[in-house]
Amino acid sequence: AATAILPSLVTGQWHYWIYTALTFLVISCPCALVLSVPLSFFAGIGAASKQGILFKGGIAMEQMKHIKAVVFDKTGTITKGNFVVHQVLPADNRSADDVLCLCASAEQASNHPIARSVVAQACEQGLRLTEPSAMEEIAGQGLKARVGSHDVLCGNRQLLDGQHIALPAMDKVEYGSELYVAVDGAYAGRLVISDTIKDDAVDAIQAISRMGITTAMLTGDSQQAADYIASKTGIDDVRAKLLPQDKVNQMDVLRQQYGPVLFVGDGINDAPALTRADIGIAMGAMGSDAAIEAADVVLMDDKPSNIAVAIKIARHTIAIARQNVWFAIGVKVAVLLLATVGLGNMWMAVMADVGVTVAAVLNAMRSYLKANAF
């Protein structure tokens, strides 16, 4: 209105300045920005979902571009979670079958992958299990149960130390989780349980490292077991013997050390860390509902290699969106300046509006086509 009226009152050139004002009005229409930026995100999210990567929104995609460290949970994320009992090492006064039977009986009511593997091994050996009359799980440590006339403890070393149960001197295992068993307040033996690394875990870690991103692993396992996995996969930073609350605290430490962090997990215990991280990724196929709910991104096929794909798609999508913003603003400003000095006309205004919109939309489609190639 000011462009149409004020100069006309001075110069009397009403036709010229009304025409110029209408040109300004057409140029300033934000169609290119309103359409192209959301379409860039829709294209990226669509391409990712086609590969089994579900972004819960554009904000998650935008934040992922700035990630400096990818932090993994171990069990079910880097490893398959198909635990197998490799050794039963009983105390001097007990047999291997006795220790396995008592431990499996106590673990029957637990849904933890290690518990299921112990029960499966006992059943495979034909051992007769007793249903526990009472059972209490202790987060991050194990459980205690009443099996027949015995009080049974099954868990990590912290559980037995907390119950003031003396442990004899014992050799360390090369790899695997040690499940300690105590019966009626006395050490009964231990089970060595190991997991297998996922087929694409090594390639996933290498792909992330090539992008200049630090990799780290947080686990409740022993330092020796964690170092073994790190040596096989190439993970940069390993932190072991962590309870669920310790993992949450470590997220802040890692953020201060490296910058924005992405956490990848699958279990109920990982939900707090997924929430605390700048971006949380949950394994959707075998992951818990709590982890999926807390995460910003879900991998439907549980493949660690898709983490690098998700980061690449996010980076490419944000780059396309920025291209569209700068292209739209740049063309509009240029035509506005031309119109101001009398060199612009209506067809240039239409091209700066509709033409730029079409070009930006086509560029947004390129986000989908390129993302499918990752």
Explained architecture:
The protein has about 375 residues and is an alpha/beta fold. Helices cover about 50% and strands about 20% of the residues. The protein has 15 helices and 13 strands. The protein has helices at about 1-10, 15-25, 30-50, 60-65, 75-80, 95-105, 115-125, 155-160, 200-210, 225-235, 245-260, 270-275, 290-295, 305-340, 345-370; strands at about 55, 70-75, 85-90, 135-140, 140-145, 150-155, 175-185, 185-195, 215-220, 235-240, 260-265, 280-285, 295-300. It has a 7-stranded mixed sheet, sandwiched between helices. A 6-stranded antiparallel sheet has the order 3-8-7-6-5-4. A hairpin with a 2-residue loop joins strand 5 (about 140-145) and strand 6. Helix 9 (about 200-210) packs parallel to helix 14. The model has no long low-confidence stretch (mean pLDDT about 85).
End-to-end distance: 50 Å
Total of DSSP H or I helical runs spanning 4+ residues? 15
Give the oligomeric state: single chain
Q: What is the H-and-E element order?
A: HHHEHEHEHHEEEHEEHEHEHEHEHEHH
Query: Strand portion, in percent?
Result: 15-25%
List keywords for this structure.
18% strand, rod-shaped, 52% helix, 6-stranded antiparallel β-sheet, alpha/beta, 15 helices, 374 residues, 7-stranded mixed β-sheet
